[in-house]
Amino acid sequence: MKTWAEVADVQPLAGKIITNSIKKHRVSHAYLLQGARGTGKEDIALLIAKVLFCESRNDVEPCHRCNACRRIASGNHPDVHWIEPEGQSIKIEQIKNLQKEFTYSGLESNQKVYIIKGADTLTLNAANRILKFLEEPSRQTTAIMMTENSQSIIPTIRSRCQIIDLQPLNPSQFQQHLIEEGMTREDAVLMSALTNNVEDAFAWNSDEWFADARKLVVQLTEMFVSQPEDVYLFIHNHWVQHFKERNGQEQGLDLLLLAFKDILYYHIGNEKALVFFTQHDALLEKAAMAFSQEKLINVLNAVLQAKRKLKQNVHPTLVMEQLTLQIQG
């Protein structure tokens, strides 16, 4: 999404709220953009920044051609500061460095913008430190925070931001777009369950690591059904070795969640809802016989709980060990 007109097509309410503020010269001093991956948080953040710095704006639309717009798009504007998690969290040192930057006058104007990706990963000390900006806002300072998990952001930050809710994209339209771009229907269905981002969908679909991740989920499901005594060893020898980074660990759990959802759908005769497995996968029938509906619901809750533990920085190996015991129990 490169213009507010495009935002209006995908996120009509969010687009209307922000563009109305721009027209009335009432851009908020702090926004919290909350929504799932692929719903347009970064595109909207860039548009807000461009609006504030653009040298040739046309009503609410930045020109995208001026020096300021081009540098913001490339991440090189000296008065637009990006903060991203270092490792698994945004640390207090990063916020201290940001505060230091803000003691200087703007290099080209007095306007400054800071954009925080993954705001839910702020450590408690970092979150308390960022409150200084929010409690004592400068008229020419704009904060834009982005999150997929707004409930993990402390209430004092939430209360000082204008919260913009971004809605999930329509899965059917997204699937059709992927198919039109050359993806198979089966892959498009799976990708639409994992992301709303076209670039991510095609990148994952052609990625060898992701293909191996899918195979590991099938193998793990098979082991829970046929060789439960070997699952613990499989987790240590294969799963943990493959899913080393946080994003990969979360993606592994997302795939496992979809696999067990499919088993439940098969159990209740809703095969049209299958996402991970095909309708004729022999493993589905075996798994449906091995797990009761009640057990499958408990497994799904256990996987969701495991995802929350990863967000809370619990050691991933421990998370998988506990999840394995819960599924087997």
UniProtKB/TrEMBL annotation:
Presence of the UniProt keyword Iron in the record: no
GO MF assignments? DNA-directed DNA polymerase activity
Q: Which UniProt keywords apply?
A: DNA replication, DNA-directed DNA polymerase, Nucleotidyltransferase, Transferase
Q: Looking at its record, which EC class is this enzyme?
A: transferase
Recorded catalytic activity of this chain's protein: DNA(n) + a 2'-deoxyribonucleoside 5'-triphosphate = DNA(n+1) + diphosphate
Write the Enzyme Commission number(s) for this entry: 2.7.7.7
Domain spans labelled DNA polymerase III delta subunit C-terminal: 243-327
Does the keyword section mention Transferase? yes
Query: What protein name does the entry list?
Result: DNA polymerase III subunit delta'
What is the scientific name of the source organism? Answer: Virgibacillus sediminis
Q: Give the gene name.
A: holB
